Amino acid sequence: MATAEQDLLEDKIQKVRRRDRRYSRHAYYFVLDALDWTMAELGREEKSGEDRHVGGRELLIGIKEYASLQFGPMAALVFDRWGIHKSSDFGEIVFNLIDAELLSRRSTDSRLDFVDGADFRETFAQKHRESLDRIAHR
């Protein structure tokens, strides 16, 4: 990403954060990165328009997988630090990014797409149980 694009992105994220201070700026960058990763995993990065779109449920799955790859068993702690405590927080972040015109949406997209009741802490703990057990027994 060119410097001018990075500056524009940073400006837009800072404007979002002035309106909604609940989430770290890192959370916004993470969601954008997780979306790119999810599109690549689904084979949508080469597509355009409706074919490229990732729905909320798909993005949540991608977020969990991407966070697990990036942060391993520490993912839940990173999310806590960023102000993310439940899956619906990602819906708030996504819709803040939509309001900032950094993402687009379909008319059927809703914040409710991000309310899945999944406990991120438990999801990451299950996924990394062996690593966590090794750490705990040191």
> How many domain units?
1
Q: Count of helices? A: 7
Unreliable segments of 5+ consecutive residues: none
Which percent bin holds the helix content?
55-70%
What is the rounded distance between the termini?
42 Å
Secondary structure: number of strands: 0
Give the amount of beta strand, in percent.
Answer: under 5%
Structural class: mainly alpha
N to C succession of SSEs: HHHHHHH
Radius of gyration from the CA trace?
A: 16 Å
Averaging pLDDT over every residue, what do you get? 87
Shape, please?
globular
User: What can be said about the biggest beta sheet?
Assistant: none
In short:
The protein is built from seven helices and no strands.
List the main descriptive attributes of the protein structure presented here:
138 residues; mainly alpha; 0% strand; 7 helices; 64% helix
Explained architecture:
The chain has one domain (3-136). It is built from seven helices and no strands. The chain is mainly α.
Per-chain topology:
Elements: H1 3-19, H2 25-42, H3 56-71, H4 75-82, H5 87-99, H6 120-127, H7 129-136
Helix pairs in contact: 2-3
